[in-house]
Design goal:
By secondary structure, the chain is an alpha+beta fold. Helix 2 packs parallel to helix 6. The radius of gyration is 20 Å and the shape is globular. The termini are far apart. About 25% of the residues are buried. Bound molecules: adenosine-5'-triphosphate (ATP) and magnesium ion. The site of magnesium ion (MG) has 5 residues, from helix 4.
């Protein structure tokens, strides 16, 4: 979606849907406060809260998209240890998706990358959140690292509805969501993977998806750091 008018019209549509719903439910509550029982009031407030969260997520994602294309944004590259980043994100995501289990398999010889820490965190948050959001109920999400030439490979794997091969490229583009019953049920702006791919590539990495037999695997390849190279030498001794 490179056309500016298309972009504005999609954004307006994405903003209008939650706003209409917030307005509708607050108007109903104000007009019929005395007639509504507590349970209905709670249900309506829950919808208002959900739709507000949806708006915040959308606005945050749109700010990230704008920053992606700004030349002013400088990335700060440092040695980043993958393990604490992944552990921190899993504990945050677990709070929101309590039915999910997390299996973290960090290869000790493969866990140091050269990256902008904040951006790498944003990348991993998007992928781990997606795995929890689109993963089967009560399922386990696996995050594992390994070496892969000059890169460290980080895989985020979940069980869930398969992503068809013809959608592999599409899901990394702006505002694209796969139309299936699950995606219709959970909220999202369709910007997460677009931002993720752009950030990974800006940091000199690559990202792919492979989905088979209901197992979805997102693989990120990030440039290995010096510590990583030394660790690999030690591991191979
Ligand atoms: N781990 C996954 N398993 C199955 N489908 C996925 C997974 N990750 C992404 N998808 C599919 O790809 C689409 C695009 O994902 P993306 O993260 O870009 O957007 P989103 O999650 O819908 O919204 P948000 O912008 O809030 O992240 C999703 O709507 C979903 O259909
Ligand atoms: Mg997402």
């Amino acid at each position: 979606m490179d056309n500016y008018e298309d972009f504005i019209s999609t954004v307006s549509h994405e903003l209008r849907t939650p706003l209409t719903s917030i307005r509708g439910f607050s108007q109903t509550m104000l007009a019929s406060w005395d007639k509504l029982d507590d349970e209905s009031k709670k249900k309506f407030l829950k919808i208002i809260e959900e739709q507000s969260n949806r708006l915040i997520n959308l606005v945050e994602n749109m700010l990230s998209v704008t920053k992606l294309h700004s030349e002013k944004e400088n990335l700060i590259y440092k040695e980043v240890s993958v393990k604490p980043v992944v552990e921190m994100i899993c504990s945050i995501v677990k709070n929101q998706y309590k039915d999910k289990k997390f299996n973290i398999e960090i290869n000790p010889c493969s866990s140091f990358i050269l990256a902008d820490k904040d951006k790498f965190q944003q990348v991993m948050t998007n992928l781990i959140e997606n795995a929890a959001k689109y993963g089967d109920e009560n399922s386990t999400i696996t995050i594992k690292t390994n070496h892969c030439g000059e890169y460290v490979s980080i895989k985020v794997i979940n069980n869930g509805i398969e992503i068809k091969e013809c959608d592999y490229d599409k899901i990394f583009t702006k505002f694209s969501r796969i139309d299936n019953p699950l995606t219709r049920k959970v909220q999202g702006s369709g910007l997460g993977l677009y931002i993720t791919k752009n950030l990974v590539e800006k940091m000199g990495g690559k990202i792919f998806v492979v989905s088979k037999e209901c197992e979805n695997c997102f693989e990120v390849l990030m440039p290995a750091s010096n510590i990583e190279r030394q660790a690999r030498e030690k591991c191979s001794q």
